[in-house]
């Protein structure tokens, strides 16, 4: 069995259509929307601000808190029960780890930067979309960052290494599927998030990560453009 | 503490000028869009000024409640998402979220806006459950009214999903809308000192003495009420606020 | 040896490469990685000779020594007041710095400043843990009277004040309002209700268009147009 044509007709190394915008949530210090295919992620940043509960304050360095959540009506199947789940807690945690390398927590001792990621519509790749949105929201909020972080899923459907799996590909039944979300700093190629579901050879993994690097350069361009759009001088 | 800000807001209200230049009974600029969450069976996004709310409807199949075997079920939930307001915290719904959901619920349920008997597939066995979920995206005041109108718009946008072997097949959509007979709309009137306003800004919400949410039908009847705020309202206040709400609901209705 | 990869006043984002080579020096908002200078902020590039720095377009206020800010009293303690500063860090105004009057020991401090009062204070110390000490003793420092307080993007405060206060004076003249601008992004204003609305709209316009040249002329036109016919 071979996967000769992708379910939605894309090339193997082609991501879905991407749309990004910043400053969409006015009360937040920084915010962004990242849409890839049918997955939409909103991110809002509040901070640095005072950290409650008090006992969590660290006088030596600041805290980064990520809260990832899917809205109840976001899924293509059943309603998602509101509230945290083990899955959302884990995604919040790895998202935090994906963003930490570009931040310097010493800039805001005792304080917290809260990142809220909410998804009104999902079609796989949610944690990646969340990280892309969060990265833009942090920059939009004026937080000091070494670089932007971009994120995309790569993987294998049947015998082909692909980029940006959608829900139908993740659920592909006619062959094995491996789903590999990756977050990267495009400029240096450093990887800040890496997870995998499925089974692949180390050669596959190498190819997949190369595909991820190419995609992450493209995504970073989109993120940069979105951040600057607000400040474009009207002609 | 709020006494000074209240005085300053009232001083401006005596000249019928609010902090954003509006008059006492003016709405901010509004826009309504449906079908914004495409995995939901129905959805809508409302913007009132910078206040933004998204409502999504998910349809489920299940066993009816034992005391109403022939009727579908309606559930309304609201999440005041922390991303919409720095004062909102993560965690289980606050009492503000619970109140908002229950008031929207009452308006729809008590007006029999949805003919829930038509949502019965097999009496005593299988009925449709309508799950309405209200999510705040940006809170700059007046979440109640925003939630109410977006909910009606989302209900109007809803199409029943297909059914296969008594299970929902979310992948197949029908063209069947919900049996919506009425479109009840909530207007909340607020009292500050002796002045009445609608569509409050965040600074105004912080100093109100009392509020009355009035759910209005197209025929000009009232199908739900909720008084809020720490101070009492007189009977004259209530009569005046109901009158304002009924008039203003006609304006909101034009959005639908 | 070195070359600039961007132009002065260009908008850049974190991670964007600004210059190559050891000729250029990394100023605030930038860092050097090998021999490339990279931005760490969303902001406008400022090239001053060999120094490259970033003028941020956004960012929460970080308390700085000698800044004059507007603080709101959020707590009254045994020996002073705690002020909210529109940042992650509250400030302490001790009894002796709170007023030029003599305060008896054990006096009720709320008689002097109470919850919700807005005070113009000066930061005289910020520790490495960001503990902030302020004083209200000094020229221009005082309690603010009845008025309206708005929050603005702290990075826009210099534009709102203008060169030697020219922008804020222009706004005051056209609207006959008293306006006090805190470097922490809080602005207090007081005037007739209609004029207060004009002040706020003008300030929001400055916030949104601060990066577009010709701001002063645009604001002047805006003020002239909007304050026509408004009774003072």
Describe the structure.
The complex is a heterotrimer of chains A (235), B (256) and C (232). Chain A is built from four helices and nine strands. Chain A is an alpha+beta fold. The radius of gyration of chain A is 18 Å and the shape is globular. The N and C termini of chain A lie far apart (55 Å). With 256 residues, chain B is α+β, with helices and mostly antiparallel strands. Chain B is 26% helix and 35% strand. In chain B, the strands form three sheets. In chain B, strands 1, 2, 3, 4, 5 and 6 form a six-stranded mixed beta sheet that branches. Chain B has a four-stranded antiparallel beta sheet with strand order 10-9-11-12. A two-stranded antiparallel ribbon of chain B has the order 7-8. In chain B, a hairpin with a 5-residue loop joins β11 and β12. Helices cover 21% and strands 33% of the residues of chain C. Chain C has three domains: 3-56, OB fold (Dihydrolipoamide Acetyltransferase, E2P); 68-143, OB fold (Dihydrolipoamide Acetyltransferase, E2P); 148-226, K Homology domain, type 1 (Ribosomal Protein S8, Chain: A, domain 1, 2-Layer Sandwich), CATH 3.30.1370. In chain C, α3 runs parallel beside α5 and α4 runs antiparallel to α5 (215-226). In chain C, β9 and β10 (80-84) form a beta hairpin. The B-C interface holds B 1-5, 7-8, 11-12, 15, 17, 19-21 and C 114-116, 146-148, 192-194, 196-197, 200-201.
Summary of the model, kept short:
Chain A is an alpha+beta fold. Chain A has four helices and nine strands. Chain A is globular and about 55 Å long.
Order of helices and strands of chain B: HEEEEHEEHEEEEHEEH
Mean pLDDT of chain B: 96
Strand content of chain C is 25-35%
Shape of chain B: elongated
The level 1 CATH classification of chain B is: Alpha Beta
CATH architecture of the largest domain in chain C: 2-Layer Sandwich
Beta strand count of chain C = 17
Rg result of chain C: 21 Å
Proportion of residues in helical segments of chain C: 10-25%
Assign the CATH topology of the largest domain in chain C. Ribosomal Protein S8, Chain: A, domain 1
List segments of chain C where confidence is low: pLDDT < 50 over at least 5 consecutive residues.
none
Q: How many angstroms separate the termini of chain C?
A: 60 Å
CATH superfamily of the largest domain in chain C: K Homology domain, type 1
> Which assembly state applies to the chains in this document?
heterotrimer
């Amino acid at each position: 069995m071979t996967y000769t044509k992708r379910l939605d007709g894309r090339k193997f190394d082609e991501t879905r259509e991407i749309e990004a915008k910043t400053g969409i949530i006015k009360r937040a210090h920084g915010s962004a929307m990242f849409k890839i295919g049918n997955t939409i992620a909103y991110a809002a940043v509040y901070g640095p601000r005072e950290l409650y509960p008090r006992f969590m304050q660290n006088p030596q360095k600041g805290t980064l808190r990520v809260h990832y959540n899917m809205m109840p009506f976001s899924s293509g199947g059943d309603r998602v029960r509101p509230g945290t789940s083990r899955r959302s807690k884990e995604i919040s945690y790895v998202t935090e780890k994906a963003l930490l390398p570009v931040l310097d927590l010493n800039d805001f001792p005792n304080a917290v930067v809260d990142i809220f990621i909410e998804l009104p519509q999902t079609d796989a790749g949610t944690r990646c979309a969340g990280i892309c949105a969060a990265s833009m929201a942090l920059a939009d909020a004026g937080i000091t960052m070494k670089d932007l972080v971009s994120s995309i899923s790569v993987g294998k459907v049947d015998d082909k290494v692909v980029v940006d799996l959608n829900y139908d590909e993740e659920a592909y039944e006619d062959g094995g599927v491996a789903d590999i979300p990756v977050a990267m700093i495009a400029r240096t190629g450093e990887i800040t998030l890496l997870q995998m579901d499925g089974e692949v050879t180390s050669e596959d993994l190498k190819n997949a990560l190369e595909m991820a690097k190419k995609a992450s350069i493209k995504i970073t361009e989109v993120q940069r453009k979105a951040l600057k759009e607000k400040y474009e001088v009207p002609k | 503490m709020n006494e000074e800000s209240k005085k300053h807001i009232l001083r401006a209200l005596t000249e019928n000028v609010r902090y954003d230049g509006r008059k006492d009974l003016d709405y901010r600029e509004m826009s309504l869009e449906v079908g914004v969450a495409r995995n939901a069976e129905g959805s809508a996004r409302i913007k009132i000024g910078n206040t933004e709310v998204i409502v999504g409807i998910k349809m489920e199949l299940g066993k009816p409640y034992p005391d109403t075997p022939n009727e579908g079920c309606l559930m309304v939930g609201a999440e005041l998402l922390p991303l919409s307001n720095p004062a909102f915290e993560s965690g289980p719904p606050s009492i503000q979220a619970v109140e908002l959901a229950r008031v929207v619920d009452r308006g729809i349920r008590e007006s029999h806006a949805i003919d829930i008997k038509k949502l019965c597939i097999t009496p005593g066995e299988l009925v449709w459950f309508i799950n309405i979920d209200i999510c705040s995206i940006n809170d700059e005041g007046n979440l109640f009214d925003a939630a109410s109108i977006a909910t009606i718009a989302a209900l109007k946008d809803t199409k029943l999903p297909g059914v296969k072997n008594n299970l929902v097949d979310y992948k197949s959509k029908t063209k069947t809308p919900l049996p919506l007979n009425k479109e009840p709309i909530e207007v909340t009137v607020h009292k500050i000192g002796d002045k009445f306003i609608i569509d409050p800004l965040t600074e105004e919400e912080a100093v109100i003495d009392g509020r009355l949410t009035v759910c209005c039908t197209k025929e000009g009847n009232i199908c739900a009420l909720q008084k809020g705020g720490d101070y009492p309202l007189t009977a004259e206040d209530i009569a005046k606020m109901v009158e304002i709400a009924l008039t203003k609901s006609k304006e909101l209705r034009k959005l639908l | 040896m070195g070359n600039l990869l961007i132009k002065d006043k260009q908008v850049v984002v974190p991670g964007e490469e600004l210059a190559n080579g050891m000729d250029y020096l990394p100023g605030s908002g930038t860092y050097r990685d090998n021999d490339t200078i990279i931005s760490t902020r969303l902001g406008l590039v400022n090239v001053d000779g060999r120094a490259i720095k970033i003028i941020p377009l956004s960012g929460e206020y970080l308390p700085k020594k000698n800044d004059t800010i507007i603080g709101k009293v959020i707590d009254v303690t045994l020996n002073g007041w705690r002020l909210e500063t529109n940042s992650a860090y509250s400030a302490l105004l001790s009894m002796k710095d709170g007023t030029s009057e003599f305060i008896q020991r054990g006096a009720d401090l709320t008689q002097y400043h109470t919850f919700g009062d807005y005070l113009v204070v000066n930061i005289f110390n910020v520790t490495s843990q960001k503990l902030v000490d302020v004083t209200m003793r000094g020229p221009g420092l005082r309690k603010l009277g009845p008025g309206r307080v708005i929050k603005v993007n702290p990075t826009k405060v210099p534009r709102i004040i203008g060169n030697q206060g020219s922008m804020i004076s222009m706004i005051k003249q056209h609207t006959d309002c008293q306006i006090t601008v805190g470097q922490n992004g809080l602005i207090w204003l007081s005037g007739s209700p209609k004029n207060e609305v004009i002040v706020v709209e003008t300030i929001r316009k400055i916030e949104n268009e601060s990066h577009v040249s010709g701001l002063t002329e645009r604001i002047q036109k805006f003020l002239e147009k909007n304050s026509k016919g408004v009774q003072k």
